[in-house]
Design a protein that fits this description.
Blueprint (H helix, E strand, L loop, with lengths): L4 E7 L2 E8 L1 E6 L2 E5 L6 E5 L2 E7 L2 E15 L2 E10 L6 H17 L2 H21 L2
Parallel strand pairs: 1-8
Antiparallel strand pairs: 1-2, 3-4, 3-6, 5-7, 6-7, 7-8
Helix pairs in contact: 1-2
């Protein structure tokens, strides 16, 4: 059996995932990252992207929006602002969010422009993951 580490993904409303994993992939503000067991301790900031959980020879994917990740040699803890399995995504709501975000980007400036760009990224991520 491959070496594993504990993973706990905590969202505001629930414990999203808890179990043993052999590899973990996610997106940070610095780019994509992969973690194997016995990784050096590290804390990173999450950027919107796909969370790939490798367990028992299978890969599960989820939409991970933002938060923090604490990496220790034998465990990883993700404190997520929002995380969803593909079957939990409301595609119509994501499409509506995309339309609103694109409208705000067309006329936006400053901090509102940044918020609109992040909303667009989240809506596109949800749509992409729900179509797999």
């Amino acid at each position: 059996m491959a070496e594993s580490m504990k993973l706990k993904v905590v969202a505001p409303e629930r414990i999203f995932y808890e179990g043993d994993v052999t590899f973990l992939e996610f997106t940070t503000t610095e780019g994509d990252m992969g973690i194997y067991p016995r990784h050096i301790p590290l804390t990173v900031i999450i950027a919107p992207g796909v969370l790939r959980i490798h367990e028992d020879g299978q890969v599960r994917e989820a939409a991970l929006m933002s938060g923090f990740i604490e990496i220790l040699p034998d465990q990883v803890t993700i404190l997520a602002e929002s995380v969803e399995w593909p079957e939990e995504i409301d595609v119509n709501r994501a499409k509506e969010a995309e339309i609103r975000a694109r409208r705000r980007i067309e006329k936006g400036k400053g901090i509102n422009l940044y918020r609109a760009e992040m909303a667009l990224k989240r809506s596109l991520l949800r749509q992409r993951l729900s179509n797999r």
